[in-house]
Design goal:
heterotrimer, A alpha/beta (about 160), B mainly alpha (about 270), C mainly alpha (about 250), A: about 160 residues, alpha/beta, seven-stranded mixed β-sheet, 9 strands, B: mainly alpha, two-stranded antiparallel ribbon, 2 strands, sugar transport (chain C), transmembrane (chain C)
Chain lengths: ~160, ~270, ~250
């Protein structure tokens, strides 16, 4: 069974912060990207796999396949960094039995209807509801963009935010 | 490939603006968006010369969130130009262009940040430091090489992107060429950093004691050097490495810890 | 040169080093080793300027601005520490220690810049809606650069007006073990730069190359440049070997 080092929500999925900072600091050797649109786009999927840094294996699953893969063999071997593109994706996996102990919110971009809550990270009402639910179910939810910056617990940040 | 609208000169103009502006208007909301839009604007005018509305729409499309590494990422400027040209012919929609941009920016930033900023910059400025630390102005040769390299590589990838469209990316990444380059640059980087840390991390102890039988003075540093030269230097480098990988990356805390340890050690005469 | 002139020049140098006009140009103009050379010229001691600049630069070799974030700013560190050190004749290690806290503050200066850029971003939206490409150029390049000038110039100018005197007074009053400690710290701090690079390369199987470089200097006494030359040869061999493999496959 894979050792899950980090579960992160980041709308940019794999990018510089993930490759240069989080993989190194968590010393992961496998990235599991869980995203329906990426999994169904053969071209983009192959780009993601080709762009894997040396020594790191990239796997792309749709949400359904990810849950199946998790239930069958917990993503196989290795030190794994799991990436979601959005809160609803992570929530759905969590609801369907994917075990999340800690959930890092690393990047969610600005869009109309979304509110900036921590640094450049934004949430909307349904994101906040889903995260609160997960948090009440015992998941440690926190905001953390890059390791060199400080992190903040979800609960603390949300004391000041009203939707 | 069918008849292409833009000349090489016009593609180069897009790259030049991208090179100049890539980071000037970087904001938390949309990062490099205005720079990308500025790089595209003049050629968009040509692509949509008969259609003002489509032109405005295209400008707005390229003001949406965007961020990548700008050197290898110049390929996306070329790709976007090629795709806008196809859109003007009615072959694809704006969503597809945005989708490709957002999809490519991440993986390209991952590779570009590693190869260009993590390694090439460290190596070339490391060489500059090597000469400068001896007081030699030869050091000044190296930093401009980095700046010029970014321009030349960016111009190449931008043209490749325009020529091949999104197929340019697999071509750039294919058959592990990037990974070979990254590995080779890692080796060179590590060798240089090893050598530089041997010379310029400075830790030594003045601790010494006198042998009661002979009255000869024995320095601890000399003994340490006899066991493994540079032991304390390695301890400093890998102590910090350990801190980074196990204690998080609180840079400020780290700096103050080093200051505190140094002052305490100086007070007791352990280091000096 | 008057303190006022030094402060003005420092403010301008810091602006040029961080303006980010030209994707890779700031990496030259803002490199502490380059700034060390310029200050060396100004104070008539090029060798010393280069040595102090390079010593500071070692700390920032591995800094990568991922996602636009500036984790620490070598240019700010250099534009304050180098002129102070050259005016007061400080030793290299103390100069490095003075530089480091300003490097940290630099990341806040950049946050101010990126926040102020929001104004021009929203203006660019208006120009896009009107199809005004000149307006977009101004919002992308000209206005942010003018704003950045003030954001960059003012703090460095102000600190340099009083910096050397303040440091002089401080060093006069501090007990000897603290000044020794600061100098000791300056010797250790470059280790951060090396640790960052080892981590960002992050490949344990390649770590022996670091030790080869380290002990080549320690045991064989070869120079750093010699080590780099051998490194280039090894890297070339690796590229050649892999490209042959690719051709056969």
């Amino acid at each position: 069974m894979a050792n899950i080092k980090l579960i992160r929500i980041d709308f940019r999925l794999i990018h510089g912060q993930v490759v240069n900072k989080w993989i190194k600091i968590t010393r992961s050797n496998k990235i599991v990207v869980i995203d329906d649109s990426l999994a169904s786009n053969e071209f983009m999927r192959s780009v993601y796999i080709m762009a894997a840094p040396p020594g790191v294996d990239v796997q792309v699953y749709s949400i359904n396949d990810a849950i199946k893969e998790w239930k069958e063999n917990q993503f196989g071997e290795g030190e794994v960094l799991v990436l979601f593109k959005s809160v609803p994706d992570a929530y759905r996996c969590f609801k369907e039995g994917f075990e999340i102990k800690e959930l890092q919110i690393g990047g969610l971009g600005a869009q109309p209807g979304r509110k900036i809550v921590y640094g450049p990270i934004t949430l909307d009402k349904s994101d906040a509801d889903q995260l609160s639910e997960m948090q009440h179910a015992g998941v440690r939810v926190y905001f953390h963009q890059v390791p060199d910056d400080p992190s903040a617990e979800y609960e603390k940040v949300m004391e000041k935010v009203k939707f | 490939m069918s008849e292409r609208l833009l000349t090489k000169k016009e593609v180069n103009q897009a790259h030049l603006y991208w090179y100049l502006a890539a980071e000037t208007n970087n904001s938390y909301e949309r990062l490099q968006a205005p720079s990308f839009c500025a790089a595209m604007a003049k050629n968009l005018r040509k692509i949509y010369k008969d259609d003002d509305e489509a032109y405005k729409e295209a400008l707005q499309r390229h003001l949406e969130f965007y961020n990548t590494e700008g050197t290898i990422g110049a390929v996306v400027v070329g790709i976007a130009l090629a795709m806008e040209e196809e859109k003007a012919k009615g072959n694809l929609t704006g969503d597809v262009i945005t989708g490709i941009k957002l999809g490519l920016m991440g993986p390209i930033a991952g590779i570009g940040d590693t190869l260009i900023w993590g390694m090439s910059k460290a190596i070339l400025l490391g060489m500059a430091c090597t000469f400068a630390l001896e007081g030699s102005p030869v050091a000044l040769l190296f930093p401009p090489i980095f700046s010029i390299m970014i321009f030349v590589v960016g111009r190449y990838t931008c043209n490749l992107g325009y020529k091949l469209g999104s197929e340019a990316v697999p071509k750039l990444l294919k058959s592990g060429t990037m990974n070979t380059l990254i590995t080779a640059a890692s080796v060179l980087g590590l060798l240089m950093m090893g050598a530089l840390s041997a010379s310029y991390v400075k830790v030594s102890t003045p601790l010494a004691w006198t042998m009661s039988s002979t009255g000869a003075e024995i320095g601890l540093q000399a003994n340490l050097d006899a066991i493994l030269p540079g032991m304390l230097q390695l301890l400093a480098v890998f102590g910090i490495y350990w801190y980074f990988t196990h204690k998080g990356q609180n840079y400020i805390k780290l700096v103050f810890t080093i200051l505190a340890i140094s002052i305490i050690a100086a007070f007791f005469g352990i280091l000096g | 040169m008057t303190t006022f002139m030094i402060a003005v020049i420092s403010g301008i140098l810091y602006f040029l080093g961080t303006s980010r006009i030209g994707y890779g140009i700031s990496s030259t103009l803002g490199a502490p080793v380059f700034l060390g050379f310029i200050y060396g010229l100004l104070f008539g001691d090029v060798a010393n300027g280069l040595i102090i600049g390079a010593s500071i630069n070692l700390l920032y070799l591995g800094v990568v601005f991922t996602g636009g974030n500036v984790p620490s700013d070598g240019a700010l560190a250099a534009c304050i520490s180098i002129p102070v050190a050259l005016q007061l004749g400080l030793d290299v290690d103390t100069a490095v220690t003075i530089a480091v806290p300003f490097g940290i503050l630099g990341s806040f200066v950049d946050q101010i810049r990126r926040t102020s850029n929001l104004i021009w971003l929203h203006k660019a939206d208006d120009f896009a809606a009107k199809g005004d490409e000149k307006g977009i150029y101004r919002c992308a390049m000209v206005y942010p650069t003018i704003t950045a000038f003030f954001i960059r110039f003012i703090p460095v100018f102000a600190v340099n007006l009083f910096g050397a005197d303040a440091v002089q007074v401080l060093l006069n009053y501090l007990p000897a073990f603290i000044t020794t400690g600061l100098s000791v710290a300056g010797g250790i701090l470059p280790a951060i730069g090396f640790a960052v690079i080892i981590m960002s390369i992050g490949r344990n199987e390649l770590l022996p190359y670091y030790f080869i470089g380290f002990f080549a200097v320690k045991y064989l006494g070869i120079g750093n440049m010699a080590c780099a030359v051998f490194g280039i040869c090894i890297a070339a061999l690796m590229i050649y070997r892999d490209s042959k493999k690719g051709a056969q496959a």
